[in-house]
Request: fold
Amino acid sequence: MSEIDVQFTCPDCDKTFSIGPDDILEKDSVACPHCSCMLPEEELRYLKIAINYMKEKKTH
Reply:
């Protein structure tokens, strides 16, 4: 899954940034590199579930 990135658009500063799925799985939080706006914990948890699901599907 390292060939894709997850792209975010910050709701505060409207800047776009990308993070690799493996990096997301390792992080306890995700913040905009431009203004430090944090992704809510619940959204990060669901994002990790989705990434893990996609990784499982890719290996089968």
About this structure: The mean pLDDT is 92.
